[in-house]
Amino acid sequence: MHLAYPAVLSALLFCTGLYGVLARRNAILVLMSVELMLNAVNLNLVAFDVWLSKAAEETLHSGQALTLFTIAIAAAEIGIGLAIVLAVHRNRGTADIDKLRDTAEGHETDGHDTGSPDSEAPAAQKAEATA
Amino acid sequence: MTTTTLAVLVPLLPFLGAAAGLLLGRTAPGFVRPLAVLPTLTAFALAVLVAVRHGGGRAIDATTELTPTGSVPIDLALHIDGFAALVAVLVGLVATCVQIYSTGYLRDDPRYPSYAALVSLFTSAMLLVVYSGDLMVLLVGWEIMGICSYFLVGHYWETPEARAASIKAFLVTKLGDVPFLIGLFALAVDAGSFRITTVLGAVASGGLDHPTLIALLLLAGVAGKSAQFPLHTWLPDAMAGPTPVSALIHAATMVAAGVYFIARLLPVFAASSAALLVMAVMAAVTMVGSGLAALAQDDIKRVLAYSTIGQLGYMTGALAVGDRGAAVFHLLSHGAFKALLFLAAGVIIHAAGTNSLAAMSRMKGLRDRVPDAYWTMTVALLALAAIPPFSGFFTKEAVLGAAEHVATGHAAGIPGSAGWIVLVSGLLTALLTAAYAMRLWLLAFHGRGAEAPDHGKQPLAMNAVLWLLAVPSLAFGLLTGPLPDWFDGRDLTPTLTTAVLSTGVALVGGLVTYGAWKHTTALAARVPLGAVAAHPEGDAAQVEAEAIASHAPAYGDVAAAPDPADPGRLLLGPLHRHAAVGFHLDAVYTTLFVRPVQAGASLVRFLDREVVDTYVHGAGAVPRLLGAAVRRAQTGNVQTYVSALLAGTVVLAVAVVLAATGA
Amino acid sequence: MSLAAAAATVAHTTTTAASATTTTADTHGFLSPTGVEIAFLLVGLVTLGAAIVTVTTRQLVHAALWLVVTLGGLAVEYLLLTAEFIAWVQVLIYVGSVVVLLLFGLMLTRAPIGRSPDADSGNRWAALTVAVASAAALVWVVVDAFRATWIDLDGAAAGSTEVTGKALFQNWVLPFEALSVLLLAALVGAIVLSRKAKTNAADTATGGKADADKERAR
């Protein structure tokens, strides 16, 4: 099989994930897009490992080992990421990334406008988040 | 102790007293008075001892070099000749009297500690100037005196007059001090040393390259310090300070420093006949102008201030005809009787509650309230008017005799015209001096009208000092015989011609004034005038401060009063208006210097505010616009940031690939 | 282009056999694909399509389900590349646990069921530009570099369980153990993050109060 096939597929998947990360509003969808990117990388690793193990008789199988590690780390990442998203959602009442604009210039003046559309995001919760 | 040690202690003791007074003034008020009087008194005693040991013999020289200072060495040097010894005695005497007098005069003043310390510091600086044998060290004392004068004139800084006067005194004397400093440097470069003995040696061997330039530069500083025309305008205004300060600094000592300085370096000035001529003209203008102005003043202290300027003019005149013996002789007697006049004037101001002669002339029996001041002041005024046998007669005769000596062509190397100028103006001034002394005496002590208020007896400290100073005013003439040994050896006894002439014109001046007063005094009852201090029971300093502050509101001017009963108005006629304001010299200075400087300042201000700031603001606008643009990018949306980051990454990666493949 | 030459040089320097594969690749043109290639291409198209739907759909739960399709498609691709072990791990971990976790997350954050009009942020067009640009750049570079490279899938499987296990526990055992520590840290971190801070504060408050009571009783 031509190496170009998995390589191109991997590149396209990666860019699809990239689009998702940049364009999605919900934080969990962003996490899904991150998974897509990671998988694209995994595909790349596996394809090159297979090629090199045959062509160069590389016996360490570093590509596959790294893929396994990536999968494990991705699992950990998704766990932590979800915990963070849940904490944010609990404190701010939203999981929308473009509403979390605490670092914006002049945030203090219009910060309340960028708060959650839910009316159940009282100031106390916000204070707790900053505490 | 050796004489040198004693001489070192003389300036040192008041300095230590001043330092201690400044340090302990607030924490230990009980020590302030002893700390003020005792060091000065001891310094006076030591100065007398030094003078006795010196005994009119050879000059005492002592020197020590603190540190090498390059091609022109600066030494801590003492040079005590007869002049220095006697002037130091005078300074010590007046300073002691003033310190004792001040304990009564500023009895309740909260700022007395700093006042006394500054007076001590001033005394120390003056003694340093007197004893110093090195021009740089002399300059140090010279400048310390200037700054002390500034602080002490501004003692009543609550009043705007005192504030303005202190700044004016400082600026005008500094205006003279700048050329003075340059002149000192030029002199030291020409002579190769700052030592006075070395400088005089260089002059004697004709080693000066630019004698006229140096003499004129030095003369500017002397004119500033000794209040000679055209830099005299600060002295009448300086009367806004306390009276003891006026007596010490602005009558007896500091203003005499300039004269003393020329006396020390007279050979330098005598090396240039042009400088002598300039000095003679300066002295003549100063003498006559100040005599006329003194006749028109209403403030008793301003009369005395103009009188001081005139008497200093006599001394300058004596120096202009090359006789420093006569100059210092007059300096000594003038120091005594002028200090006495001022201190007595302080007593009168306290008793009358006003400093205005117009108001005093409407008070009956003021002389009975202050008998001590009346008698001592009479003595001092007679001395001032040079009536024999008071001290002023002998000293003034010495000056006039020296002038006549030169005018008749008996002196080599000194232009005869200088002698004539000094002689004629001196005689004219003798007339004017007698006139304003008479006017002062009549207006102050022979007023008619309401009974003078009774504020009780004056403090003993103040009255005793008056009598102490009256002694030299009376009897200083007795020293005419032995004094020439201390000076250059020239005879100081009066000559017949000048004595008859000057006494005659003085008598004429006094009698004319008396006649004018007889004529005008009837008007006094018709025109009520006068204002007295709000707190007559306060100490003298408070009364004086209130009198100074209320003079301009009450009489329309700080110097003159619209009093038709004033004999000076009758005598001067149309000149009175101009004489009262010092012949408009202040107005001229305002036009010539103050206005251009202020205009320049406002121009600079305009340039700074409107032109420079425009560029600054313009320079700030561009970054502000850029900042606003960049600020808009800070949306807080992480996705936007990552988008920009990745876009940049892609661009860079493509660029790198293109570069690597050589496309 | 020279990138192909560069890649070939890399292969050359690695081993001499690389040149052999390059020569074999020359015999396999793109216009005459093998069966495996056709299968890879078809599954790849499905995977890519599912991925695109995942990042564009307006229904959040559907996105998670399309993600399952994408990840499953990738598992098939691993199988086609003879990496069996990776493929099953992919199915187990991704399809089995990660997607379930994501669904839980969606549920817990009260994601709306059905079409949500604001699933995409206003950054969409910038994101599309960046993604298309980077895709173009990546595809260009990758194709340019590896168009002549051939993977020989014949012979023993490159990623069988035996081979992978040997590699993992002979050469990679230390990182493997370190990974376990990382997972533990992630576990603890996730628990700490998701625990409610309020109850924590309340606990300490009551504890402090009890202490104070004890103090008073004493």
Question: Which shape of chain C, going by the Cα principal axes?
Answer: globular
- The helix-strand sequence of chain A is HHHHH
Uncertain stretches of chain C = 4-23, 207-218
H and E string of chain C: HHHHHHHHH
Distance between the termini of chain C: 88 Å
Q: How many domains would you count in the coordinates of chain A? A: 1
Most strands sheet of chain A:
none
Helix- and strand-based class of chain C? mainly alpha
The second-level CATH architecture of chain A is: Orthogonal Bundle
| Classification by helices and strands of chain A | mainly alpha
Q: Name the poorly predicted regions of chain A.
A: 109-131
Beta percentage of chain A is under 5%
Strand content of chain C: under 5%
Largest interface, Cβ cutoff 8 Å: A-C, 79 and 100 residues
The total of beta strands of chain A comes to 0
How far is the first residue's CA from the last residue's CA of chain A?
56 Å
How would you summarize the topology of this molecule?
The complex is a heterotrimer of chains A (131), B (663) and C (218).
Chain A: H1 4-23, H2 27-55, H3 62-92, H4 107-110, H5 123-130
Helix pairs in contact in A: 1-2, 2-3, 3-5
Chain B: H1 3-24, H2 32-54, E1 60-64, E2 76-80, H3 82-105, H4 112-131, H5 135-153, H6 160-191, H7 196-204, H8 211-225, H9 234-237, H10 243-252, H11 254-264, H12 266-270, H13 273-296, H14 300-320, H15 324-352, H16 357-360, E3 363-364, H17 366-369, H18 371-384, H19 391-407, H20 416-445, E4 450-451, H21 460-475, H22 496-526, H23 540-555, H24 567-572, H25 575-580, H26 585-633, H27 638-661
Parallel strand pairs in B: 3-4
Antiparallel strand pairs in B: 1-2
Helix pairs in contact in B: 1-2, 1-4, 2-3, 2-4, 3-4, 3-10, 3-15, 3-21, 4-5, 5-6, 5-10, 6-7, 6-8, 8-11, 8-13, 10-14, 10-15, 11-14, 11-15, 13-14, 13-20, 14-15, 14-19, 14-20, 15-18, 15-19, 15-21, 15-23, 18-20, 18-21, 19-20, 19-22, 20-22
Chain C: H1 2-14, H2 17-27, H3 35-56, H4 60-80, H5 84-108, H6 124-146, H7 161-170, H8 173-194, H9 197-217
Helix pairs in contact in C: 1-2, 1-6, 3-4, 4-5
